[in-house]
What does this fold into?
Amino acid sequence: MSENKRKGKHLLLGQLFRNRNREVDLMIEEQIQSPGRMMLDNFLHNRLGMIGLIGFLAIFLFVTIAPHFVPIDLGQSDATQTNIPPTTSMMKLPDGLKNNVQAIAPGPTFGVGCDKDGNIYTWGYTKITDKIDIKNIPDKVKDSKIVDVAAGYDHIVALDEDNDIYVWGNTRLGQDRIPTELKTGRHGRPDIIQIEAGYQMSGAVTADGRAYFWGNSNMTDIDVKKDLQGHIKKIAIATYNYICLLDDGSVAYGGLQKTNAFTNIPANLKSGVVDIAASGDTMAAVTEDGKITVWGNITHHENEIPEFDSKPVEIYGGRYHYTALMENGDVISWGGNDHNQATVPDSVNTTDIETVYAGFYQNYAVTKTGSVETWGLKGHPLGTDDLGRDILTRIIHGGKTTMTVGAIAEIISIIIGVVLGALAGYFGGKTDLIIMRISEIIGGLPFLPFALLLSAIIGTRIDVQLRMYLIMVVLGLLSWTGICRLIRAQILAEREKEFVIAAQAMGVKEHTIIFKHILPNVMSILLVQATLGFATCMLTESSLSYLGFGITPPTPTWGNMLTGANNSIVIQQYWWRWVFPASIFGICTICINLMGDAIRDAVDPKSLGR
Amino acid sequence: MRKYILKRLVYLVVVFFIVSLLMYCLYNLIPSDPARDQLEAMKSTLTPQAYQEMYQELRQQMGLDDPIVVRYARWMGLIPGLKGKFDGLLEGNFGYSQYFKKPVIDVVGPPMQTTIFINIFATILALGITIPLGIYCAVHKGGKIDNFTQVFTIIGYSIPVYIIALVFIFVFAVLLRWFPVSGMNTPGANYTGFRAFLDRLYYMALPLIVMTFGSLGGMTRYVRAAMIDALSMDHIKTARAKGVKEKTVIYSHAWRNALLPVITLIISWFLGIFSGSVIIENTFNINGMGSLYIKGLNNHDYELALAIQMFYTIVSLVGALIMDLSYGLVDPRVHVDK
It folds into this structure.
């Protein structure tokens, strides 16, 4: 018996792939199998079909499960993260810097640091434009002993032991116009105690309490009030503004702007301030009594300081987050956490931290033993698009949208097609005529222009969610004709069979006959049609979205992620913006079609080999 | 046969009117107000009351407040227009394009030529490849080339055409630099005659290749399936048994029988690419009907869009008619007039 079974299986396999002419034992050939069992066996033994099924299931599970772990912020756009190629090396310290850190400055997508021997290193994605690359460190910088570095949005400032300042990167807007006072000074070259960099501008503080700023002053407030000069101990630069810590322990707004979000300094910062820091749009200060005060344009919960039991001594600002170092060597982070930059790993708080370098979305904590712990934005595994959105996140959520729209549109079209097809096929006569004429007209209409028109009627002014549902309905309404015709033909064939006549003779209600007696017989063909139709619906949705008439951004779909990819710059330079969405979408539809073909072969053995 | 053609023609006309009425109603669903658009420029110079008066007057003039069926009949040219003349679609007035500030008929000329050119060219190319390939695969069923084609065609018909376009642009235009990325002709060069044709062909080459490639998958499979069906018929066995040459069996006995489903395919596919070339034209920035249609929809130029929509509709209706009639021509067994 088991011998027979094995042979039977072998036969099935053989029938599917090769050896179709081999002579077989009559007993095995005639072995009876239930049709369902046979279909399943046929399907399971179809190699391509199984590949399709596994591939589809993998992608399906990926886009249904992953969105729960990778949340998406639809309104997100980040000018500092645009068009970054796939990389995860934004926090990967070079070997020379490990255990030998003098200073680190995190930039938007890159890092720069110097070791205790005065060598300088860069890492991460260092290209600013086609021509400008932070990695190209000037020879002068390489030859001198660097003691401090600062990173702006697109330029780097470095200080060497002779108090020489170097700037490289984007210098088109005067980022390298270092004030002459810093070069010569009235009383000889001054000692520089701090360098900082912001948006297209930089600043330096000298040992005699003076601050100097240079760079693009059109958008930034980088003048210094005269009466502050000589008393400045430290500066903190936000995107366009700065504050300074004075020698009497108070905080002052240094620029000349009369009122902005930062000029109104909180009252408790008149004295006793230990440290100051700035994020992109807020300022923060730590006072002697261990309190942290944050003011400015709070956008990312920068003022929601977590509870702590030690006393903060130093504070550092990223783009949307703050990190504070405690007296006991602990570290806390808070604020914007979309890249995990405010989630301090446990390993950091089990070791004693010497100091922290924070900036943009990265944190580097140097331990007392000299090793470096990092947390924050590692990079984007599949790159980012023109608005700085992570491609991987958008692929995950786009897949969810595309599949949902495709599935629901297909379900709608199946429902319409089955109901109308069943009615037409069973009743015949006038019903049949009317339904078939309607289906002929709708099926004969040019599909894509008609879909575009319906999408234009829906308009873009309505709610995004509602528009998505309406697009599903439109796709469903336009694609039921094929199923309708198929079901009608099947029912016409089934209607004449004896069991229907018997049912009619017994007085079974007509809709029961249609939907309970006849429909189960055409179920298998429906399954094939549904699978292939699902892929078609996904294709249509993506084509519409690609043309800008389907699901509109910011909601991602695999189709609208490719909108605007048809120019040579995107195709060549920003290849990650189209290669990844296109590949996963292509693989997905191929898998569904392989699966559909395999189901058809399994259901209808006559079609084998077509 | 003549009676059948006549019947089909009447049916076609009826369907045309139903569809055009449907389209006209749909376009009227799009929120827009031509009267307000026309007055928009003068709005700042008028008092609100005068504006309102002029607006109502203009609405009256344009006949915007009439019932939709009346407006449809006027647009179609079935009843006299507002100026007392029959002046509608049937009289050759396709409307006025607000976006181009020209009659629609003057706008659609060159794009229509382009679209018809690329579609017919792509059809010829695709048929030239798929029919021999499909026949070869059917005859050598299960062979290496057949298996390869089977897998390859699944990929071909699964991937949307704009992804194929992106890949082809990347490979042929960006990497190999054989073809231009997009456009219609060399900017600034005023070629004439044959030179202009060559230049046009150079720019159209990549879109044509993509269109052809995109249709290879589905069509090859279809031709192959039709041919396998035809080859499994009894009369093929008879012919072989009689010792008819294999070539004759395939190309005369089998192919004639496979032609019927293939013709259905060719025509429906031809209609499909007509509307499908919207995507190609948009991707390659070709000034064709499809990109014009999208321009019309995006710029709320609905008279233009409606005219193009009617073009697509007529193409598909005529296509369906040709499909029906060709059955009788190809296969004498089919009596279409029954």
